[in-house]
């Protein structure tokens, strides 16, 4: 039986360890695909944080291995908190469940069950080897795109846009810089580095020649950059998007198929209204990032360029997962509503 943390008497340090595991997993988001960005924290019997570790790029050690390496002999008798159930299979690396047993870990707390069938079973292996196992279900934001991708068999797609309060992404004269403030734009650049790919349409490339890169406020490139993908059949003029290179596919499905085969699991669509509508019509949008500016235009260009539902009952509905202020703007994050009928 899985044991809940509320049944445990020695909670000292576990809350901090859970926070630490989530934090170090978030740090490597965007660098680990096709593997998930997992975080692990090891805490001693008196509640002291011994070590942390996170998933290395594909082919490198998993989070548990990195944490155990840092902990060394101090791991014996300690508790390991992991954001995802330790794997139980041999791929390019060995099973993390076996490594935890061999290190003498006394208890493992994991926050998310592993839905990937070839890797599942780690909890059972640990329990069979005398390790106390606690499943503490918790939504770990960094893992959500990967979890969706495993279920869908394609990269998770997040539609991102910035609009006024009345839903316009540009004014009637076409101007759009800047709808949101500098803090929101900085957040966008940070978020891009956590993605495997950014997807835009040929219309956006031809009109705007966007960089599609994650940059620091001084304009320099951040350490990790996503793949840059263009969808559409129109030719992109020489010089557009050539600074960092890009790949082009005629349809959204072909782009996602190619990205999946290349190991990408988390894609961000920053398309224009036409591409946004195409992804929505194909039912390929799994999450939404809406940056809302406290401004009204009354008329202008919308998020999509055509109706994607004829009646309110056919609307694409999402479940809000987070709402927070980013400078003077508001960021609303949503995920696909699993109860919707379409």
Automatic annotation (TrEMBL):
One GO process term, biological-process aspect: riboflavin biosynthetic process
Alphabetic keyword roster: Hydrolase, Metal-binding, Multifunctional enzyme, NADP, Oxidoreductase, Riboflavin biosynthesis, Zinc
Family matches, as NCBIfam families: eubact_ribD (TIGR00326)
Gene source species: Corynebacterium glaucum
Catalytic machinery residues: 64
Cofactor: Zn(2+)
Domain of life: Bacteria
Catalytic activity: 5-amino-6-(5-phospho-D-ribitylamino)uracil + NADP(+) = 5-amino-6-(5-phospho-D-ribosylamino)uracil + NADPH + H(+); 2,5-diamino-6-hydroxy-4-(5-phosphoribosylamino)-pyrimidine + H2O + H(+) = 5-amino-6-(5-phospho-D-ribosylamino)uracil + NH4(+)
A Pfam family this chain is assigned to: RibD_C
Pathway it works in: Cofactor biosynthesis; riboflavin biosynthesis; 5-amino-6-(D-ribitylamino)uracil from GTP: step 2/4; Cofactor biosynthesis; riboflavin biosynthesis; 5-amino-6-(D-ribitylamino)uracil from GTP: step 3/4
Binding site for Zn(2+): 62, 87, 96
EC annotation from Swiss-Prot or TrEMBL: 3.5.4.26, 1.1.1.193
GO molecular function, one term: diaminohydroxyphosphoribosylaminopyrimidine deaminase activity
Name of the protein in its database record: Riboflavin biosynthesis protein RibD
List of residues binding substrate: 176, 192, 212, 215, 270
Function: Converts 2,5-diamino-6-(ribosylamino)-4(3h)-pyrimidinone 5'-phosphate into 5-amino-6-(ribosylamino)-2,4(1h,3h)-pyrimidinedione 5'-phosphate.
Cofactor-binding details, from the entry: Binds 1 zinc ion.
């Amino acid at each position: 039986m899985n044991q809940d943390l509320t049944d445990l008497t020695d909670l000292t340090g576990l809350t901090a360890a859970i926070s630490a595991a989530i934090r170090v997993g978030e740090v490597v988001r965007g660098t680990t695909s096709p593997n998930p960005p997992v975080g692990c924290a090891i805490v001693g019997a008196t509640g002291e944080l011994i070590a942390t570790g996170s998933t290395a790029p594909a082919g490198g050690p998993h989070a548990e291995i990195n944490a155990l390496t840092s902990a060394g002999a101090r791991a014996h008798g300690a508790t390991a908190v992991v954001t995802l159930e330790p794997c139980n299979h041999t791929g390019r690396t060995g099973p993390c469940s076996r490594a935890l047993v061999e290190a003498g870990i006394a208890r493992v707390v994991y926050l998310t069950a592993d839905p990937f069938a070839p890797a599942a079973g780690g909890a059972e292996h640990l329990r069979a080897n005398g390790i106390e196992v606690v499943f503490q279900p918790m939504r770990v934001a960094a893992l959500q795109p990967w979890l969706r991708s495993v279920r869908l068999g394609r990269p998770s797609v997040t539609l991102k846009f910035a609009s006024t309060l009345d839903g316009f992404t540009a004014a009637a004269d076409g101007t759009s810089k800047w709808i949101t403030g500098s803090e929101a734009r900085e957040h966008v650049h940070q978020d891009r580095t956590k993605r495997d790919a950014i997807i835009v349409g040929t219309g956006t490339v031809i009109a705007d020649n966007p960089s599609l890169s994650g940059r620091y406020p001084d304009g320099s490139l951040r350490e990790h950059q996503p793949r840059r993908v263009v969808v559409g059949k129109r030719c992109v003029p020489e010089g557009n998007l050539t600074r960092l290179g890009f790949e082009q596919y005629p349809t959204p499905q072909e782009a996602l198929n190619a990205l999946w085969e290349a190991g990408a699991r988390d894609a961000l669509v920053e398309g224009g209204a036409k591409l946004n509508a195409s992804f929505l019509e194909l039912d390929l949008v799994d999450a939404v990032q809406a940056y809302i500016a406290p401004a009204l235009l009354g008329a202008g260009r919308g998020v999509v360029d055509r109706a994607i539902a004829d009646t309110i009952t056919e609307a694409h509905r999402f479940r809000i997962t987070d709402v927070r202020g980013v400078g003077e703007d508001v960021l609303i994050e949503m995920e696909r509503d699993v109860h919707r009928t379409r």
